[in-house]
Amino acid sequence: MERPQGCELLAFEGEIALIIGRPAHRVQPEDAWSYVGGVTAANDLGIYDYRAQDKGSNTRSKSRDGYTPLGPDVIDASLVDPHNLRIRTWVNGHIAQEAITDEEEMIFPLSQFVADLSQHMTLEPGDVILTGTPAGSTVIFPGDTVEVEVDCPTVEGCPTSGKLSTTIVEGPGNFNASVGMLPSIDDKQREDAYGDRASAGLPEEDDLSSMDPELRALLEKVPTAGLSAQLRNKGLNQVHIEGVKSNKPGTHMVGVATTLRFLPCREDLFPALGGGYNAQKKAFDGLKEGQILVIEARNDPGSGTLGDVLALRAANLKAAGIVTDGGIRDFTPVTEVDIPVFGRTAHPAVLGRKHLPYDTDIAIGCGNTTVFPGDILVGDDDGVIVIPRALAWEVAIAAAKKEIQDEWVAERVKEGHPVDGLFPPTGEWKKAYADYLDNHPELMAALPTPPEAK
Asked: Where along this sequence does the record place binding of Mg(2+) (predicted)?
């Protein structure tokens, strides 16, 4: 089997192939297996270099001459249990895939493939259905030999397809750019082909859903007012989510942003985008521990953007909070849920009165502020502030140092000193504060060290 020159990512997929034995049209799952005449092995080879061009069709990536070989023998389907077929794949003699078609390993039973497809077309004798590949599919190279076998070890004699053997060779490319698209790959295709980034030799991506625990602990001690001042010192003024307040006074919320965007509601679009398992529900179900869901509702408080059930879901997933520039439905029950929610106001109407849930994990505007997934959010009684991830450590350390100074200044004011020259410390007061730090080195020593400085 050829891997054409100019291509890098040829991958194998050992699969069980079902061969239809008699016409099947709108058959029921309980009867579907009787329409299968035989079972054999398949190698669903594919070139990932063409996946982007194929846009899901797999026409170029899986349709080259000789691809998807079947055989070598066919097992009589009437002799085997469709829930106990075994598939194994070897690469150069080493086992790469092994699975059984029982309920634990199959997403759908084999009979459901037949029943489902027969709803949409008449399956004719000789039609072949490939049923998916187990874990372990990866990239192969010229010189590699792949073997796939399907058998049924629970049946006497262990009926088998025999080993389907495929040896990979380097073939000509001969791609003509004037006729069609050329093969191309990126790191996403490499990751998909190999199964993970490490196997593809790629560095680990930053996990934008998490935060360094030391950074989180530090931000939990720093007020938004101090963070705002430090961001302003760096020229960032448009970092406040305006018009929102906490439903739990005294809350100090820290987390990583994930986002949900609402569009203005249009009645003809709501059945398709607003009903069922829509973007709003997906956003709440997809929350991870420590994340804050930020909702763009265009500063329109004219309906709820969440209620008590969704707040409960976020709390159960250990999300750090919810921020919306729209309304909050079920306001009192939401307040009783163990999660801080920052919003504009209470409103009894469901979201369909004003909003259409549209997209998640994209850049949004919330309270006249741009929020990207992965941004760091801190909220307290003064509001919610957005910290660019790349600046989080620097800003947090600076704000923490300023808090130490402000606490020292507050003690001097309590002693009766005027604020002139003291807030902020200048002249003799500046020297007095420096002496205070010299006498209390543990204050600065207690601050964490950013990872890049360790």
From this structure: 330
